[in-house]
Each structure stands twice: as structure tokens, then as C-alpha cells.
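As a warm-up, study this chain.
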Amino acid sequence: MKTPLNRRRFIRQNLLLAAAAGALPQVVTFPLRGQAAPNNKVQVACIGVGPQGRGVMSGFLSQNDVRVIMLADPFKPNLDAAVQQVNAKYQDNAVQTAADYRAVLERKDIDAVSIATPDHWHVPVALAAAKAKKDMYLEKPMGLSIEEDQLLRRWCQKNKIIFQFGTQQRSSREFHTAVQAVRNGRIGRLRQINVWCSASRPGGSTEVVPVPAGLDYDLWLGPAPLTPYTEGKVCDTPKSHKTWWFNYDYALGFIAGWGVHPLDIALWGMPEMMAGPMTVEGQGVIPTTGACNTAVAWEVWFAFANGVKLRYRGTKNGYNDPSPLTDFSDWQQRYGKIVDHGTAFEGESGWVHVYRGGVFSQPENVVQEPLRPQETPLYRSTHHQRNFIECVRSRQPAICPIEDSVHADILCHLSDLAVRLNRPLRWDPRKEQFLQDAEANRRLKIRSKRKPYQFA
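Now compare it with the structure written out below.
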């Protein structure tokens, strides 16, 4: 049972969040940072406009008080597709383009940027945007190291950047329903959280081929090691699936790229997991052949200071060798339908299982009953880009602020390191370092960056 002090703190924090989300009246707005916003529209530039970036951009194009005025991507086919999308919306040819994101950040009339580059560029671009005092919507995951995350957080806080992470499940009804029920104690004292997502794919071509037409490959690589272009590295081809998602030079793989979504919901449901020391240990399978070298199966256990445990696993995504790591029969028996991702909260008097498109509980009324008068409402957003734009105007925190986003990303890094080191680790979330483990702490550092793409 929660103490009165914890409950008062919980209520105070959630009232502040509710105000920020629009659940309470907002009467104060602030001037936009851009210097030339016609009709008081928020002027947005999109950096990284591949399929994911264009999907995020569509959320901004649907906002009547937003104008997308510039696009940047080192792959011309991506730019061409994005230009067509923007021009179809505005019925003109006004949007400007560049291969290099730095051309965007030089402009004084841009209020906010959407960043959806490959993962290895996320923090370098976001850090430059924060220094240029641009509010930002950053696709997940965050950095290739925890030190990168910390550096970005420091600059966002220093320059009072409105930050929205691309963990858009927080803006979906089913996840809000699940987390609000858990945080209001409807399943009693929390005992365990089960989390799963699609794992990385194995394989991937290592055949060296010519760089695709229209790709500035040196700029695409940026801070990553200089390596030959291989089949399917940047995009799917008839011979290979896209491999950068699953290559450690550019990403942690889906243990972070997909996993940050259900892990973020676990964090949202129990933010106190970051209040004290924790242990983490795991095992997994990392391919040693092919272009893909991130975890294709794993099981990671967290034990938090309050006694709650978290079990995190990867579902099959091309790795089909028989393994207890990919046997989900226990969760299928308990929760019924299991899709390739989800978060399940286990309490003393019931459970809540949520995934995209569904939320279920035992007892069933846990998620079916509306908010009770004595319960505390949770920060509510019904559209991730809309929430970001409203916060750009109000200067209130978005539903996925930089602090929560770094914590969610840290859970991904801890999981990856536990699998790679294959031994128990002890983590101090206040100091954000491992306890008495020099080798593990070295792996928190910013990776070596290729010249001239080092951090300034």
C-alpha cells in the first residue's frame, strides 16, 4: 500500500502533467522561437525523410497550425518522395531541400525539427539542434551510448528545449488506459512487469556493391566507421533486407529500436524503478556471420530497489533455432493472445496486458471501468505530434520529455550490455553508472567518431 506522502507526490506530479497535456485549461502561450512564422504557424523542418521520417512528417502535415518548410536527407530518393508528399498537402512548390542537416539548423525561421535519421545520427543531429535552440521531435531510440544520451539531455535542459521522443505509444488510448489503471493501484501492489518486442533479424548481405544513385554515402555514414557499401545497407533490395537497423556500427538493434516502446510503457507505469540501485542480468544470441550483429534472441531480468522485477524478451524475427529464449508458451497461456510486442503488469490482485490495438486485464473491470472520483488522472495525449506542437506553444513538457526518454533509453542500453557481458550488473540510476565495474562503465562512453563528424 502506498504511503500518504507518496500519494500526495503522485497527485501533485500528475496534476502538473495533466495541465501540460491540456487536461487542465491553458491560458498562457509564448512567442515562437522562429523569427518569421507567417500566420503564427509553427515552422517545422524534417531531417531524415525515409519511410519512417515521412510517416512522422505526415503527423505534422495534418496540423493546420504547422507548416513544413524544409527537408534534409543525404539520399535523394527519400527527398524526392518527401517533396511530393509536402507539395501534395500545400499545393505549391515552396518546400526547400538539402542533403546536409546543417543547412536546416542555420535558418532562424525554423521553430522545430523532426529528426528521423538512421540511429547513429540521432544524437549528433539532435545535439546540434539543441545547441541551435530548436525544439525537437526525435525518433527513437536515442544514442549509441548512455553518455550520448546524457549529453543531449544536458543541452536540452540548458537551452530549455521542448523535446518529444518518438515513443508514441504514450499518445495511444490503450496504453494510457493500462498505465492509468496500474498507477492508481487497480491491480494492487506491483510485483513484476513482463516486456517483449520483435528481436533483430539475422543474416544480411556482406556483398560489396556500388553506392546507390543519389546517396551521399560519406554523409550517410557520418560519425560511423568508414566501411564499404554493401547490399541492402541503406534500404531493402531484392537480394537483402535493410541491414543498418541490425548492425552495431549504426544501431543497438531491436533490443533498443523496437524495445524502447514497451520498455517506455513499463517505465511510465512504474517511474520509481529509477529511484534506487538495481541489478540486471541477461543472456542472448548475437550472430557472428552476415551484416547483422545485434541480438536476435534474449532474456533480461531487472530487479529494482522496491522489490519489483522486470523480465524483457525478444520475439522471433528470422532467428528460428530452437531455444528457450524464444519460447513464449508461458505468457501465451497466461495472457492469451501474444503479438510481437507488449507490456504486462502483474500485481497482487490482477494483471494488465497492453499492446498496440488491445488492452486486457484480470479482473476484466480493471481496464473497463472509467476513472473513479478518488483516482488521479494521467497526463493525456491523443496525438503525438499534436501534443508536441501544443507544448512548443505553451512551453510545457511534452508527454515524452527528455528526462523520461533518457531513462527509457538507458533501460535498452542496460539490456544490451547485460546480454553482451553475460554476467550480473549493478546499476546506480542516480549516478548513472555501474557499481564497482570498470569494464561495464567503459562501455557507457561515447564511441569514437569519424573525422570530421566528432561532437563539437
